[in-house]
Amino acid sequence: MTVDAFWKEYLDYAKLDKSTKYRNSYYFDTTEEGATKCLDLVLAGKQRATTGILADYDGNIPKAGEDYTIITDWHGVPHCVIQTTVVTIMPFGDMTFELCHREGAYNSLEAWRNDHMRYFKEEGYDFSEDMPILFREFEVVYTRR
Prior knowledge:
Layout: H1 3-14, E1 24-26, H2 32-43, E2 49-53, E3 68-72, E4 78-91, H3 97-100, H4 109-122, E5 132-143
Parallel strand pairs: 1-3
Antiparallel strand pairs: 2-5, 3-4, 4-5
């Protein structure tokens, strides 16, 4: 199933106006193994947040209660629709375990920091503690039945 067909299926399910748009579609992480692990966490209700570099949003900040994203597997197959519920912008160094724990994969702030520093460096960013990040909390509003 294509992402657009999946989105139409969700709009019918949720009885939303057909003109409602989704923000984007993607998988989490930079490896197939990581993408599969994150997708499993999202579908199990354990991952309820994600962190990105603020600059990646290019001024187009997600809006709580309005933005939808389609989460796919590594191969681009859609599995669920998430809706943004809370957006927090802060320096990387201000992250707390209370927040990062919502990403579902971390048992310590140190583990979260190490994984995200790796990811940001792999994406080509010059890492710093002051680097602005966007922490987005979400809820799964649709999975294919």
